[in-house]
């Protein structure tokens, strides 16, 4: 907690900065301050002349049996205000200048006048150094600071009173009057500060402080790094002042006694005796006051530096705590960065796997391997969405499994993708500790989901990884969807959805090589819709398209999963049957022939299409051909033979007319 005396000093004992005074854009205030300062210097000269002309020096004041002498010197009053409100040099310059002009005007030699003019600034310097060493004592609202101000004023008065000796020596004054001048000097300095300066300071404290803040010219004087050195200098000056005062007083007494010793005039003895008695009394009084001033100054010094040391210790402790906290924070940041670095490495490996995946299953496999390594600090479950619209757990990690296989199989997920990220969908009762859901989507199709538990508090790396994981998953699944779409467009006919001719050639090449390697047969059907051109001409191309799509759908539903159906061109469809003998292929062809005749199709507007028939050519490997092109040519030739034989029938390659098969009713 900051002491009030320390905080208030920056307002009471601030120093007017000449740099700010000359640089700030406030010419009116700058001109006013400089004008008042010049007027104060001029007034100091006038008041100094008045003090000499009206003989305000060594005025006797009788207090009972004792007589004191007081010198009134008004320029010192003005100097004290400039010292305490503006700074040392603002007070020292007009004081020295006025004293020098005054001494020169009244006949003091210039070399002595230069030295004599330094006496009052010397006392002012002592006051300035004390308040600079202990700035908190400049708050005159505290009684102890008022006592210190009085003692400081006394010490400064005694220090500046050496000017009395310089004056007496330079003017060859009588030795008997020297004590009166000397006593009047320091007594007047002290009484002026107590009776005039101090009351004005107490009354004007608030106003002066507010005015200093409003101008912006004052620099707060806080304790500086050379405060201890300044304190030692002040202490040395106080001790030197006491020693100087003792030496001057003793020397004055010695000189007076020596002067009287060579004279037998009784009229000289009496003043000398009185002066010696007064000098001894003054010496004892001054030494007592100086010792009190030094003691009080020492107490203030001890209290001040104790507070400074306590504050320094508190600041050091606070700095150590802040430094320790910063070290811990940096260690945490370093650990988090290391964790992020490891996570980024794993993310890079996972990202490579995700982008190289050619199917949704490969993405699921990559996540099954990397998610437990990527997020080891929280519970997680990776589920796959099965064909029957159920969740199947692939892997889980962490201390506890969030859900079990039986619970996952019972969850029913909606078709709307906007609900797939809701935690309540997977934990409606809120007892499974599920806090975050990452759905794995391929377009608008849900292929899986990642369920995650609560994140460790303060760990931002996990949120960072989850954000990156979501982005990479979305990008990988989007790329997969695009690849699948491109693959679909590259291998399928856009009208019927059947494989196209290019895919047929690629597939037949590898499949025929496999059948040849294992010694297995393969059959190929080439199906052509009868009178398709007549259908297009009579009902339009839209009807022809509907006929193609209907027959293609029918064929796809009737063939095996290992068989493929391709649109070969126009109204021609090829069906490849791997590992099927000619006998079984013949049965499948007749089944298709009869089924298509019984097929009922409609246009997009709902109008029924006329009954359709097809002509089928069938070829077998290796009976009829030993290559892909030869097999297709054999089936094509058989198909044309079926058309030549009257359509709506099956013809086997290189067969005699008795092997022509037609459906009943033709």
UniProtKB/TrEMBL annotation:
This is diguanylate cyclase. The chain crosses the membrane at residues 31-52, 72-92, 112-133, 145-166, 186-208, 228-248, 282-305. It is an enzyme of class 2 (transferase). Its EC number is 2.7.7.65. Residues 520-655 form the GGDEF domain. Keywords: Membrane, Transmembrane, Transmembrane helix. PANTHER family: DIGUANYLATE CYCLASE DGCM-RELATED (PTHR45138:SF9), REGULATORY COMPONENTS OF SENSORY TRANSDUCTION SYSTEM (PTHR45138). It holds the Pfam family GGDEF.
